């Protein structure tokens, strides 16, 4: 496979108790569906002003998260469960009953080598600001481009702070609503 299409991507929680692989075989969408959400629940849940979410099929994930002792879920609203590590508290993903085959993973849980690229051997330099190094291919640009699924809860976008995101914009959820008309800035 070309460097533009990894066979798999790895990630996990902060303490390492939960680790996962997302497999991208011939039949898997690349890039996968990406969305962002600015609802107040995603803000509280991630501690960030918006979540960036990767939508993949449960069958692409291994191992089964239920096999981890610290895997826990919180039902934040009827039909929506938010998965986390009960040891370190990392938010990992959410599940929605309208999308029973899918898992919606927070992009920030993906390992650095896949987001930004591996540090290239022999490129580490000490500078007055700290260590500087060069990296190989990372996929963060593809894995954060919400032009596939869109930006949810645009009604909560904060002018000048979180209203710069590309892709279709929905006042609330995209499942049964049309996107907002494009406006020229
Ligand atoms: Zn953990
Ligand atoms: Zn949300």
TrEMBL record:
InterPro entries for the chain: CENP-V/GFA, Mss4-like_sf
GO molecular function, one term: metal ion binding
Keywords (A to Z) from UniProt: Lyase, Metal-binding, Zinc
One Pfam family from the record: GFA
Domain CENP-V/GFA per the UniProt entry, residue ranges: 9-134
Keyword Zinc assigned: yes
PANTHER family, per database record: CENP-V_GFA DOMAIN-CONTAINING PROTEIN-RELATED, GFA DOMAIN-CONTAINING PROTEIN
Family membership noted in the UniProt record: Belongs to the Gfa family.
Identification of the protein by name: CENP-V/GFA domain-containing protein
């Amino acid at each position: 496979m070309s460097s533009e299409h990894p066979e798999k991507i790895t990630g996990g929680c902060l303490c390492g108790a939960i680790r996962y692989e997302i497999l991208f075989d011939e039949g898997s969408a690349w890039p996968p569906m990406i969305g962002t959400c600015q609802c107040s629940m995603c803000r509280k849940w991630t501690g960030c002003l918006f979540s960036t979410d990767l939508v993949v099929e449960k069958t692409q994930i291994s191992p089964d998260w239920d096999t981890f002792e610290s895997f826990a879920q919180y039902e934040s609203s009827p039909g929506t469960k938010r998965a986390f590590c009960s040891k370190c508290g990392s938010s990992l993903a959410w599940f929605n009953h309208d999308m029973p085959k899918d898992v919606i993973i927070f992009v920030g849980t993906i390992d650095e080598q896949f987001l930004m690229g591996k540090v290239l051997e022999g490129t580490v330099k000490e500078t007055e600001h700290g260590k500087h190094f060069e990296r190989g291919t990372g996929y963060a640009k593809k894995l954060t481009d919400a032009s596939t699924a869109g930006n949810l809860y645009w009604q909560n976008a904060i002018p000048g702070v979180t209203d710069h995101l590309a892709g279709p914009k929905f006042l609330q959820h995209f499942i049964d609503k049309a996107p907002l008309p494009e406006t020229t800035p």
